[in-house]
Structure to design on (362 residues):
């Protein structure tokens, strides 16, 4: 009986030891396929930045340059209808003047004074003749024809003298600016004798300036009168811009610049200076559709492509481009849709199906 119990215990111990050893061996030395860690992924992983596809309006502008010039009929010319002697010149070319400001001091020339003297003599003589003929007519010693002739001679002499006096021939005269503006030219000097009708001083009205832009002949064909143009001084921030409108488009190429002159009327609020160098931005095209950053689009032969980074893989899309403006480009086709994330940095090294890691979304 004792032998049988001992044997049973020994058998139980042996079984326990055997089972324990098997479990230890299994857990530490046997590796099944399901227990093995997944193999590490092979191949390069590109680090990229992405930006979403947007649906928006986009406008392209042509940038052109030009200068500020006088508008038609902008120059006010000072002249006199009789010969003068210049006493004093009080302005110079390029000077800013206000309406009523003195420009020149002049007086009649010796020949003009002689004409004035002759007119005064003719007036006095014709006046006396008319009075004498009237006396003779009262005594019936003169005819109606004689008195009519005497009266006609007196009226002519009187009119000539009045005209000379109205023109300022009777003394010194100060010529003043008729508008606010800039002195364009001064054609006379102190002491000069100037013939009648000759331009003395030219003033460009400050409100009568415009911009002359030089546009490529092909681009000029798209322009129309009245079209809006954004203008800014090259020497100032582009944010300080004003809206002008196309007044005239030349139909010939300027031989000096080989460009087409486009004249743009300025609003009254513009404060450009005569001769100032101006940058113009003309609306070239507008569209509404899907746009992406310019850096997302890459050339490939005669086509364009871009990559999206969906599910950690680079997906290639063949697209067509449309209007471009600033950093945005209109795109068509390729299976794109608004909200897709296109690669904008790191796309030059990508290949279709390549693993990608997104670092940042713009």
């Amino acid at each position: 009986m004792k032998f049988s119990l001992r044997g049973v215990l020994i058998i139980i111990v042996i079984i326990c030891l055997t089972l324990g050893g098997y479990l230890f061996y299994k857990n530490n030395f046997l590796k099944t396929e399901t227990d093995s860690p997944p193999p590490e992924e092979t191949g390069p992983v590109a680090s990229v930045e992405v930006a979403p596809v947007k649906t928006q309006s986009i406008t392209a502008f042509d940038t052109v340059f030009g200068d500020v010039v006088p508008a038609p009929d902008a120059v006010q010319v000072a002249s006199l209808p009789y010969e003068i002697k210049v006493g004093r010149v009080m302005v110079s070319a390029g000077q800013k003047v206000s309406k009523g400001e003195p420009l020149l001091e002049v007086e009649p020339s010796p020949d003009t004074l002689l004409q004035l003297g002759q007119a005064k003599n003719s007036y006095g003589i014709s006046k006396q003749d008319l009075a004498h003929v009237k006396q003779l007519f009262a005594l019936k010693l003169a005819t109606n024809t004689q008195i009519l002739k005497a009266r006609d001679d007196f009226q002519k002499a009187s009119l000539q003298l009045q005209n000379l006096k109205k023109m300022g021939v009777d003394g010194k005269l100060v010529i003043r600016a008729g508008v606010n503006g800039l002195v364009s030219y001064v054609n006379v000097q102190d002491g000069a004798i100037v013939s009648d009708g000759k331009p003395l001083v030219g003033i460009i009205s400050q409100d009568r300036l415009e911009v002359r832009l030089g546009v490529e002949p092909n681009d000029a064909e798209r322009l129309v009168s009245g079209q809006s143009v954004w203008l800014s001084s090259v020497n100032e921030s582009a944010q300080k811009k004003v809206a002008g409108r196309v007044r005239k488009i030349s139909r010939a190429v300027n031989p000096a610049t080989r460009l087409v002159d486009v004249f743009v009327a300025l609003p009254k609020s513009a404060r450009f200076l005569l001769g100032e160098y101006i940058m113009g931005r003309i609306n070239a095209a507008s569209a509404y559709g899907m746009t992406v950053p310019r850096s997302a689009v890459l050339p490939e032969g005669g086509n364009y492509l871009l990559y999206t980074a969906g599910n950690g893989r680079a997906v290639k899309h063949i697209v067509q481009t449309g209007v471009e403006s600033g950093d945005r480009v209109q795109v068509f086709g390729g299976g794109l849709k608004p909200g897709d994330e296109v690669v904008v940095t790191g796309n030059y090294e990508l290949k279709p199906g390549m693993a990608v890691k997104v670092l940042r979304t713009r």
About this structure: The radius of gyration is 48 Å.
